[in-house]
Design brief:
single chain; about 425 residues; alpha+beta; Aminopeptidase; eight-stranded mixed sheet; four-stranded antiparallel sheet; 11 helices; 18 strands; about 25% strand; elongated; Amidohydrolase; metal ion binding; Peptidase M20 dimerisation domain-containing protein; manganese; metal-binding
Length: about 425
């Protein structure tokens, strides 16, 4: 079934390779993705006049609604923001772009997380679905989301009335589906029921001391020393509070204090990132972080308590078991040995599930690989897989093919899994989602 549909309807991908290269060479930072959104809208309008296209949702968000008779409604999501990273891949279409971020600071910009693959795959999948309208029945929402890297884009679209019938009037989906390119063998896909990706909580913590001359520390309350104790003590959360069979990470990614060596500064700023894979331990770890910071400030005689500012938050990405099992069955049929069921959650984080949880619907998210097969196999044989450039690296450069083809096929197979007409042997028959 999948073979016939894909052979018949999958478009030639050379035009999409060109779109990918254009996106990769012209990345835009979160909340500033106007040109990217315009490119997406323009291509969608060229595909069909039957698409209901709505723009500027929660910033630069775009949706295209394809109604094709009775049946379920599925929402397919791709994110499209980039990162403040200077690209070092050496690709002929590498980004050399710089732009001012939302704070007005000039930054290099790169698609270092593969969101350009997500956009291109979904655009090609949209064309495939439009051509194959005689093979499925229902409604598809193609959703293109900004600001994933800030963890705000999905919530911003929902809060801006994505599902509000009086505003953007996006049909409430029966399920939300999405995918992410990863540093895995190209051509492969990975699925997992339950927790697929971790929750993430990030904070800026300000520690207050008392400034003085570097030669007179007895007149100071040194925030650098206090911050140093905090950093060391935070490491005991995962090693001494979290059970050994539970997964969690607490990282202090930045310490900032003072400008010169002979002045004890009046304050220090820590930036802390927390990853967890269960809601119970997420809350307990957050409480432990705050307890330790406050206790060390008290021990160090800080003139006032620390200030916590939340900078980012991502929910757990939890794959609905029933939806995931249907996806796994289809992926195993189509990708064969190149489909694997992932045994453990990934410690990166995503906000895609907000598009589902906000309307009490199930979500399913999967990974597809982007590392050239020969390189992967050689590194696997010589034990150097850990040297492969990963997402957010300035060297992250998924091979163009078969990565793009895999992304398009995975989305197409997912569409046909849930929307095939009864005459085409629908695989998925849930009780009620």
């Amino acid at each position: 079934m999948f073979q016939t549909l894909i052979d018949r309807y999958l478009p030639g991908l050379s035009q999409y390779e060109d779109i990918y290269k254009k996106l990769h060479a012209n990345p835009e930072l979160p909340d500033l993705e106007e040109e990217t959104a315009n490119l997406i809208e323009g291509h969608l309008r060229k595909l069909s006049s039957n698409l209901e296209i709505k723009t500027k949702i929660g910033g630069h968000g775009v949706i295209a609604i394809c109604r094709n008779g009775n049946g379920r409604t599925i929402l397919l999501r791709a994110d499209f923001d980039a990162l403040p990273v200077e690209e070092k891949t050496g690709l002929e279409y590498a980004s050399t772009k710089k732009m001012k971020d939302v704070n007005g600071d000039l930054k290099p910009v790169m698609h270092a997380c593969g969101h350009d693959f997500h956009v291109t795959s979904l655009l090609a999948a949209a064309e495939t679905a439009l051509k194959a309208r005689d093979a499925w029945s229902g409604t598809i929402v193609f959703l293109f989301q900004p600001a994933e890297e800030r963890g705000t884009g999905a919530a911003a679209m929902v809060d801006d009335g994505l599902y509000d019938p009086k505003k953007h009037a996006c049909p409430v989906p029966d399920m939300v589906l999405g995918q992410h390119v990863m540093p895995y063998r190209a051509g492969s896909v990975e699925t997992k029921a339950g927790t697929m990706m971790s929750a993430a909580d990030s904070f800026k913590v300000t520690i207050y001391g008392r400034g003085a001359h570097g030669s007179q520390p007895h007149h100071a309350i040194d925030p650098v020393v206090i911050a140093s104790y905090i950093v060391v003590r935070l490491q005991t959360i995962c090693s001494r509070e979290v059970p050994p069979d539970e997964t969690a990470v607490v990282t202090v990614g930045s310490i900032q204090s003072g400008d010169t060596e002979n002045i004890i500064s009046a304050e220090a700023v820590l930036k802390i990132d927390i990853r967890s894979v269960t809601q119970e331990w997420r809350q307990r770890i957050l409480e432990s972080v705050k307890r330790i910071v406050r206790a060390e400030c008290e021990a160090g005689r800080c003139p006032k308590g620390p200030v916590f500012e939340r900078t980012r938050t991502y929910p757990l990405t939890h794959n609905d078991k029933e939806v995931n099992n249907a996806i796994e069955k289809s992926f195993s049929s189509w990708f064969g040995k190149h489909h694997k069921s992932k045994p453990k959650p990934h410690l990166a984080s995503e906000d895609v599930s907000i598009l589902a949880s906000s309307v009490n619907r199930p979500c399913c998210f999967w990974f597809f690989g982007g590392i050239e097969a020969k390189e992967w196999d050689e590194r696997e044989n010589n034990g150097t897989l850990d040297e492969i450039a990963v997402n957010h690296s300035p060297y992250f450069a998924p091979v163009l093919q078969p990565t793009l083809k895999t992304g398009v096929e995975a989305l197409t197979v997912a569409i046909m899994t849930f929307l095939r007409t009864p005459s085409n042997e629908m695989l998925y028959t849930p009780a009620d989602v």
